Amino acid sequence: MTKKPEIVLVGTGAVGSFYTGKLAQAGASVSFVCRSDFEEVQKNGVFIKSVLGDYSFRPKEVVRAISDYSGTPDYIIVATKVLPEINVPSLIAEKVDKNTTIVLLQNGINIEPPIMSAFPDNEIISGLAFICVSRESFGCIDHQDYGRLVLGTYPTGKSPRAEELAALFNSVDVKCETNEDIITARWKKLVWNAPFNPMSVLAGGATTREMMNSPETLKLVQNVMKEVLALAEKTGNPIDSTFIDAMIEDTSKMTPYKTSMLLDYEGKRAMEVEAILGNAVRLAAEKKLPVPHLESLYGLLTLIDRKNIENIAD
Fold this sequence. Notes:
By secondary structure, the chain is of the alpha/beta class. It has 2 domains: 6-180, Rossmann fold; 184-313, N-(1-d-carboxylethyl)-l-norvaline Dehydrogenase, domain 2 (Orthogonal Bundle). It contains 12 helices and 10 strands. Strands 1, 2, 3, 4, 5, 6, 7, 8, 9 and 10 form a 10-stranded mixed sheet that branches. The radius of gyration is 19 Å and the shape is globular. 42% of the residues are buried.
């Protein structure tokens, strides 16, 4: 009998809870490292309302820190927000064994180097989630649309571990593909994230549908996307210009959706400004590539994020 893969999730928000819940359905042994939702998840497990069918599950272990986990994980899945104050290596180091694969199921560009530097001998799988999902309350997740995953060994190639995860996901109706060029795949996701996430906040809480229905806003979306494509090419990851049309078409069909950044803003939580915009703006400066639209979004959103955090402190 094939051994169940041992999986530990760090970052038990909507994305991490949904996907590891599906892995549990597929037969994996899933444990959670929780902080704010520890008591609720330990007591009642996780309920996921989903367009794929509602389900609930109980993690094998629910712990406050990874050092409290009793086993040695095959995979540590990191699904935290990418924020400067979150030091991922310190969160997971105590349970990273020589055979542990680290999976980054996170937003942003250029997020893998700190993990590779901290764990140079471990396999790193970079993962991209294309999903509309939110956390209604502790232990309760609302999956509204989509759900496709792309996984790839960082910085390039495929591996048996990536293929194992993909097979588990596909066995429970989560479309998952492996990609040998995961860096370019990350740039493709940024083509969508860079305009829609920040603009949903700057437009006063606009949904994807509201942004798509405004000709002026849609033009700005397209201009930001063009800058991301130009920057991707400068970094050696060219993307065909027709990709913009595909993204616009896909978004027009999407269930009206509040972006993850907007949900963080409305929830008075720090936003992933650096991962989605700051890293791109800094890369553009290194490459001496003008990106005025990206810089404008970054400048405005940095201030909004700072004021939002200050309001939390008050």
